[in-house]
Amino acid sequence: MRFSLNRRRFSDLSEQEIVALAISSEEDDARIYRSYAERLRAEFPATAAIFDGMAAEEDTHRQRLVDLHRNRFGDVIPLIRREHVAGYYARRPVWLVENLGIDRIRAEAEAMERDAERFYLAAAKRTSDAATRKLLGDLAAAEAGHQSTAEKLEQEHLTEDSRSSEEDNARRQFVLTWVQPGLAGLMDGSVSTLAPIFATAFATQDTWTTFLVGLAASVGAGISMGFTEAASDDGQLSGRGSPWKRGFASGIMTTIGGLGHALPYLIPDFWTATVTAFIVVFIELWAIAWIQNKYMDTPFFRAALQVVLGGALVFAAGVLIGSG
Q1: What is the pTM of this model?
Q2: Checking DSSP bridges between strand 8-9 and strand 85-86, what pairing results, if any?
Q3: Using one digit for the tens of pLDDT, what is the confidence trace for 69-94?
Q4: Taking the CB of residue 60, how many other CB atoms lie within 10 A of it?
Q5: Does 32 share its domain with 52?
Q6: Which residues contact 162 (CB under 8 A, 6 or more apart)?
Q7: To 10 degrees, the CA torsion angle through 151, 154, 156, 162?
């Protein structure tokens, strides 16, 4: 609260401060675009070239603003930035956005241009100097026209082959970061908890006890799988992405896989709960086979045979142990 009270209102800024704010904003935006370009250059070189071009255009805007400031107010530019002005649009931290997918980064860039256009339109209304008003209006139009600039850069750098290559890279990254660890977790949670849950069910025929065992096994396995995945690979050399994302995907899906056939034992009647759990297990195993087929290019029937056979063996072991 104290920080927000110390911020200046945009309506209280002088014309010199408005120009200084525009200069620092253009510097920040150019720096952000270059950060995006460096983040994407290895896997998405064509899109990186687009951001390089947009950064260069922001540099041109900054230089025009600096020249205007020098002509009107002199060489000393006041230090004023976005965070000094209440209600001024904020940029998300680069580290937050660059960890997202390429489509999210492109959307963030579009939002940046819209924000900048609104700022220049508001700034132009606040100045009485004709040259300053004209430049701010021109920059507002330039920000609005960045979409066409981006389209020209896309036509220059983002050919059909490079776009196809980038889409393949994006899909591969999605599979490595989210699908692969999530699938491993779902398989572990669905299959490895079959034995303790059904062994408990047939040994005690107590639905509440079975549910508690299933809950403990699922949550425990989820925590273990999540931390194991996050600690096993930092993603720097393998290119598998953020360890926290992979750990989250693996842990959550492991827990879901186990809870799927534990939750039916909230039903008081033993056989009703057990039959329902059988059905849930069947759905889980076929879901695993479908994911393998869709994202891992595994033939569906081969994936189904492997998963169903493995699940059936674990399930049978649990029933035999529990019945004995």
Answers
A1: 0.53
A2: parallel
A3: 999 999 999 988 888 887 666 666 66
A4: 12
A5: yes
A6: 45, 46
A7: -160
